[in-house]
Amino acid sequence: MQPARLPSERVVPTYTWIAPVHDLLALLVEADARDLAHRWAAVQDGERVLEVAVGTGLSFRRLLRANPNGWTDGLDRTPAMLRRTRRRAERTGLSGWTLRQGTAYALPYPADHFDLVFNSYMFDLLPASDFEPVLREFYRVLVPGGRLVMANMTIGPAWYHQVWEMLYALHPPLLGGCRGVRVRPAMEAVGFSAVRRAVVSQWTFPSEVLYGRKSA
Ligand SMILES: C[S@@+](CC[C@H](N)C(=O)[O-])C[C@H]1O[C@@H](n2cnc3c(N)ncnc32)[C@H](O)[C@@H]1O
Q1: Is residue 75 part of a domain?
Q2: Ligand 1, closest atom to CA 119?
Q3: What separation in Å is there between the alpha carbon of 131 and the centre of ligand 1?
Q4: What residues make up the domain containing 82?
Q5: Residue 191 belongs to some domain of the structure
Q6: Do residues 176 and 205 make contact, with C-beta atoms less than 8 angstroms apart?
Q7: Predicted confidence (pLDDT) per residue in 18-72, tens digit
């Protein structure tokens, strides 16, 4: 795993300029992994759902539509990304949601609250030493038996997957500061059970999709 090279204080400025173009790459190379993550999330209408790092709302609007009689919270560090999610959420015409600015490191929600925490393409920005502290926050806010579903850029087995690692090594902002990561060991260390992982490759871009449960 390469080290995280986008300093934390550069995340908000970087995602402020990326916001208008973010969805181009996301739709081209992340759509298949996102679809699988939503299948694994299997939202039941009426649940309490949290998406951490909503970005432009590509997943948030899907979570909302799957949960019209439940409640869906969303959070992100970057106001420019949150504004896009807000517009998408408003266009659904649904009302059971809130969005707020905040950080995954200190979630502003009570313990034992959410049936599902959903998170995509955020851990690939974080230093590996922060995986467990952030996952402990996810674990804290889940109800016993609650589930975590994530998608991340990962390190693929094929030679062509390395192209993305080379782009990152050349200039991290080219990929929004994201590099391939493997988060499963940290999930297990934090205590998630029934952990499963799939690797999905789309146009040579490797993603991992992860599922785990908080002990009942
Ligand atoms: C690559 S985008 C992914 C957005 C969205 N999850 C998706 O899959 O399209 C990364 C997002 O993570 C957000 N982010 C980065 N670090 C964060 C943190 N510590 N807490 C909350 N959001 C964070 C950024 O602001 C940005 O919106």
Answers
A1: yes
A2: 6
A3: 14
A4: 8-213
A5: yes
A6: no
A7: 999 889 889 999 999 999 999 999 999 999 999 999 999 999 999 999 999 999 9
Number of domains comprising the chain: 1
Residue 86: give its domain's CATH number.
Answer: 3.40.50.150
**Ligand 1 pocket, residue 99 CB under 6 Å:** no
Q: Is 184 in the pocket of ligand 1 (CB under 6 A)?
A: no
Instruction: Report the C-alpha gap between 81 and 55 in whole angstroms.
Output: 5
Which residue from 122, 141, 148, 164 has its CB within 8 A of the most atoms of ligand 1, so it is best to mutate? 122
Ligand 1, residue 30: give the atom nearest the CA. 8
Q: Quote the mean pLDDT of the chain.
A: 96
Encoded amino acid at 95, one letter: S
172 pLDDT above the threshold of 90: no
Compute, in angstroms, the gap from residue 87 CA to the centroid of ligand 1: 17
Chain-centre distance for alpha carbon 183: 12
1 located within any domain: no
Predicted confidence (pLDDT) at residue 110 exceeds the cutoff of 90: yes
Place of tokens 């500061």: 177
Q: Is 122 close to ligand 1, i.e. is its CB under 6 Å away? A: yes
Q: How confident is the model over 123-136, as a mean pLDDT?
A: 97
Q: Which residue has the tokens 């899907």?
A: 62
Do residues 34 and 119 touch, judged by C-beta distance below 8 A? no
Instruction: Report yes or no on 81 lying in a domain.
Output: yes
